[in-house]
Amino acid sequence: MPSTLPIADPAPADGLLPPTVRDGADRRAFGVYLHVPFCRVRCGYCDFNTYTGDELRGAKRSDYAGQAILEVEKAGRILHDADLPDRPAATVFFGGGTPTMLPSTDLAAMLHAVRDTWSLAAGAEVTTEANPDSVDAAYLRELKAAGFTRVSFGMQSAVPRVLATLERTHDPARIPLVVRWARDAGLDVSLDLIYGTPGETLGDWEQSLDAALLQEPDHLSAYSLIVEDGTKLARQIRRGEVAQPDDDTAADMYELADRRLADAGYDWYEVSNWAKGDAHASRHNLAYWQGHDWWGVGPGAHSHVGGVRWWNVKHPAAYADRILAGVSPAAGRETLDSETRRTERILLAVRVRDELSTAELDATGRAAVAGLIADGLVDGRAALAGTMRLTLRGRLLADAVVRRLLGD
Questions:
Q1: Domain 19-289, what architecture?
Q2: Is residue 87 within 8 Å of 119, Cβ to Cβ?
Q3: CA-closest candidate to residue 106, choices 138, 65, 142
Q4: In the β-sheet with 150-156, what is the strand arrangement from edge to edge?
Q5: φ and ψ at 329, to 5 degrees?
Q6: What pLDDT does 54 receive?
Q7: From the centroid of its chain, how far is CA 402?
Q8: Which of 34, 198, 356, 386 has the highest CB neighbour number within 10 Å of its CB?
Q9: pLDDT band at 313 (very low <50, low <70, confident <90, very high)
Q10: CATH 3.20.20.70 intervals, the chain
Q11: Cα–Cα distance, 42 to 321 (Å, whole number)
């Protein structure tokens, strides 16, 4: 969740939604995202809406769960007043920040509020992100008992030097411990990796892949490091203190990851995500890419319901003020027109394996398909069967594929 919010129309203080959100609602799944904006330290590359203890300006971590629960309850009333069909939460995702900086009882209370407000669908996916040094075996057992089904650990790298550049605080030796504790608790495990860190070599990256695969996670994400303006890392690069990440090296790292993961039995289902079979793909993230509905709870959280998108005020203190005053915490809102929705559909769906049908393309997009096949960016056999499936080269150049499909 980037720390900079978009500029759009003011959001209504009551948070009420227009009647148009009902259109097609019975064909869209519903999920809940709960943002926990606290971190022990701020990593130099991070542009997310997170706060360390000395940045809270009066907001208290101990009060946060109660405030989030108030927003959940308000969300339930707003969706009911919009006359939307009753939809249980198919997925719930706690992100951050570091959600596991809160006591497990706080996360359990927030999940209980979601269950009370909407209920949970049968087999609902309930995930929390966690830093490896923020949980122990007892904490993970408590999450499982509360109804969590999945934990995503921010491993990032197995190389201490790379972790130091990223300013990550955990010891790589802790990864096997937390994975074992999660397994023993009955939780599915995902590991998040970052590649392309300044100074990271292909050998370093291979070491991280080896260490991750040794744990046999159910799911693995591998994200190329993006140097965001305004971050400490961007300033270090500008001053020449660390090297600018190299795009060619990052491409080599992606190709290595895809090869190693495929050999280990993982299927790619989105450009940066692999799973051991479709059952272990992140259903919550797929809902974003597929254009379903979700309510985002917490400071800076984004929501989308039926083509209406909004985002909350950023700072925990401002969020608390609005929640306790009984008004919507939303800072801005926009209603997407049909062209914007079509563009976003192509932008997101093309990244997901077999998600975008050629029938969804307009004349410009359909005309571009033959050239994309000829250039080795789209699988020809899949396209002839009516499905846009990126090749490995196409995944590396996914943005270029989108531009050609849209005629940009």
A1: Alpha-Beta Barrel (3.20)
A2: no
A3: 65
A4: 267-270, 273-275, 219-224, 188-195, 150-156, 120-130, 89-96, 30-36, 293-297, 302-305, 308-312, 330-335
A5: -80, 0
A6: 84
A7: 20
A8: 34
A9: very high
A10: 19-289
A11: 24
In the predicted model, is pLDDT for residue 350 greater than 60? yes
pLDDT digits (tens, 9 = 90+) for 70-90: 999 999 999 999 999 999 999
Closest alpha carbon to 113 in 65, 52, 172, 178: 65
Give the β-pairing of 273-275 and 267-270: antiparallel
Output the six-digit token pair for 52: 């360390």
What is the CATH architecture of 337-408?
Orthogonal Bundle (1.10)
Q: How confident is the model at residue 338 (pLDDT cuts 50, 70, 90)?
A: very high
265: left (phi over 0), alpha (psi -120 to 50) or beta: left
Please tell me the predicted confidence (pLDDT) of residue 6. Answer: 64
Instruction: State the DSSP string of 116-185.
Output: HHH-EEEEEEEEEEE-GGG--HHHHHHHHHHT--EEEEEEE-S-HHHHHHHT--S-TTHHHHHHHHHHHH
This prediction's pTM: 0.95
**Single-letter residue type at 237:** I
What is the C-alpha to C-alpha distance for residues 399 and 19, in angstroms, rounded to an integer?
Answer: 34
Residue 59 and residue 313 in contact, taking contact as beta carbons nearer than 8 Å: no
Q: What's the Cα-to-Cα distance from 324 to each of 64, 321, 350, 364, rounded to whole Å?
A: 11, 5, 41, 50
CB count in 10 Å sphere of residue 240: 8
> What would the mean pLDDT of 239-258 be, rounded to a whole number?
93
Neighbours of 144 (CB within 10 A): 17
Residues paired with residue 188 on neighbouring β-strands, in sequence order: 150
Residue 254 pLDDT level (bands cut at 50, 70, 90) = very high
CATH 1.10.10 domain locations along the chain: 337-408
Q: Which helix (H) or strand (E) holds 31?
A: strand 30-36
